[in-house]
Design goal:
By secondary structure, the chain is an alpha/beta fold. About 35% of the residues lie in helices and about 20% in strands. The chain is built from 14 helices and 16 strands. The protein has helices at about 30-35, 75-80, 85-100, 130-135, 140-150, 155-160, 160-170, 190-200, 220-225, 285-295, 315-325, 335-340, 345-360, 420-429, and strands spanning about 15-25, 25, 45, 60, 110-115, 175-180, 205-215, 255-260, 270-280, 305, 330-335, 360-365, 380, 385-390, 395-400, 410-415. Strands 1, 2, 5, 6, 7, 8, 9, 10, 11, 13, 15 and 16 form a 12-stranded mixed sheet that branches. The protein has a two-stranded antiparallel ribbon with strand order 3-4. The chain has a two-stranded antiparallel sheet with strand order 12-14. Strand 1 and strand 2 (about 25) form a beta hairpin. Helix 1 packs across helix 13 (about 345-360) and helix 10 (about 285-295) runs parallel beside helix 11. The longest helix has 17 residues, at about 85-100. The chain is globular and about 55 Å long. Mean pLDDT is about 85; it is low at about 1-5, about 120-125, about 150-160 and about 420-429.
């Protein structure tokens, strides 16, 4: 069925019917939202006002003891091959599926999986960089090159995501299993955009988008830090958009977002996904402007803004410069002052939090924000306590990659499906 408000009349309405989150706050989207609302943060500073003793950068870590694995003979066997990332992926997938009432007990060829992951050893990192380097000066067509050079080309062509196999096992979805690498996909926005296209084209009726931001190795941290320094403080005044912010804060986690076509949805619509785009231009400001323009062209005007807001002195400024002229004076919040940047899945975590906020009718405050930077123009950050979203809220979510040399930017528009949701949320507080 075409969308009745906002969007092109020929575009099927896409709804969010389930979300799942693992974060330093614990298991579940609600738990993280409530931690943000209470002003909690989860950075390990070694018990003192500064970085953890072992590393120069404070980070927010997931308590892995809370992550469980499904019971049963098949799962016990699969567990022999499942690393931490796979276990996180299955956990968040099952959360989202449970909300939609999907058990995964039967095969569903109209459902598919899209993974937002990093180029870890689980995702062919030993093979792909070598191939990319060799192909640059090779005269053969790509298909011929892969066929000749890859020992098992059918593996790469037919099973692009190993983690996706575990998620497909949980969901029963057999329509797709593809991966979008988070390093170039703005915190999972690229995976979400691909899922939207699979639904809009009619290829699938539902897609489960799962992202895993696994703990960074010290080598990876050092490489990121050399390109653009991480923050070395995780105390009040070091948060996103603060005048004294000094660098992105490190986090980890996983998230799942279940999207369905409204006309064939199995679950109850929790929010409406009105647009999603990820773009790469010559510079990050241009990318952000183009991505935001693309999603706002077919959506209602945003009434709230959920920003990337990683605490980077440079990127917070560029994000604000690109977005504020397009959305005006709207309340803005973000999650990274509470749990840090979970990289490959940061935008998926934010998407889940937006859905939760729309249901509650409130926005949680920005963590570690003490004095908003006056150089960011008319920014209106949520501070200290929650703020009502207002009637029939529509949220803009923006997402970026880490580093001076990354120019990818993503934008998502999520709208309330129930015009009474804001009033309901206020009544519960």
């Amino acid at each position: 069925m075409p969308s009745e408000r906002g969007g092109r009349p020929d575009r099927p309405e896409i709804v969010v019917t389930g979300t799942g989150v693992i974060s330093p706050a614990g298991i579940g989207t609600a738990r993280l939202w409530e931690a943000m609302a209470a002003g909690k943060t989860f950075f390990d500073t070694g018990g003192h006002d500064g970085p953890a003793p072992a590393l120069p950068w404070p980070s927010a870590a997931v308590d892995t003891a809370e992550v469980t694995w499904p019971a049963g003979r098949d799962w016990a066997n699969a567990g022999k091959y499942a690393n931490q990332s796979a276990r996180w992926a299955v956990s968040v997938a099952r959360q989202a599926l449970e909300q939609a009432g999907i058990t995964g007990d039967t095969e569903d060829v109209r459902g598919g999986t899209v993974m937002a992951v990093g180029s870890s050893s689980d995702e062919l990192s030993d093979v792909i960089p070598q191939l990319a380097s060799r192909f640059r000066n090779d005269p053969r067509p790509l298909a011929k090159f892969l066929h000749d050079e890859v020992p098992d080309y059918s593996y790469i062509r037919g099973i692009p995501s190993q983690l996706g196999q575990f998620v497909s096992m949980a969901s029963g979805f057999r329509g797709s299993n593809v991966a979008v690498y988070g390093e170039a996909a703005a915190g999972g926005t690229g995976a979400l955009a691909l899922a939207v296209r699979l639904l809009e084209s009619g290829e699938l009726d539902r897609t489960l988008v799962v992202g895993v931001g696994a703990p960074l190795s010290i080598t990876a941290m050092a490489a990121f830090d050399q390109d653009e320094p991480f923050g070395t403080r995780a105390t009040a005044g070091a948060g996103p958009f603060d005048v004294d912010r000094s660098g992105t804060l490190i986090g980890q986690g996983a998230a799942a977002v279940l999207l369905e076509r409204a006309d064939t949805a199995h679950g109850t619509a929790r929010a409406r996904l009105a647009g999603c785009e990820v773009l790469v231009a010559a510079d990050v400001t241009s990318s952000a402007g183009l991505a935001v323009d693309a999603v706002l062209a077919d959506a209602d005007t945003p009434t709230v803004w959920w920003a990337h807001g990683a605490g980077s002195a440079r990127l917070d400024r560029l994000e604000t410069l690109a977005v504020l002229p397009r959305v005006g004076d709207v309340p803005v919040t973000g999650s990274k002052g509470t749990i840090g940047n979970a990289f490959e899945c940061s935008a998926l975590i934010d998407t889940a939090l937006v859905v939760e906020s729309l249901a509650r009718g409130e926005l949680p405050p920005v963590g570690l924000l003490l004095r908003p930077d006056p150089g960011l123009g008319g920014l209106d950050p949520v501070m200290g306590e929650t703020r009502p979203t207002g009637y029939a809220a529509t949220a803009l979510v923006t997402a970026f990659n880490q580093g001076h040399h990354s120019t990818a930017a993503g934008a998502i528009v999520i709208a309330s499906t129930d015009r009474t949701s804001a009033d309901d949320g206020k009544a519960r507080t």
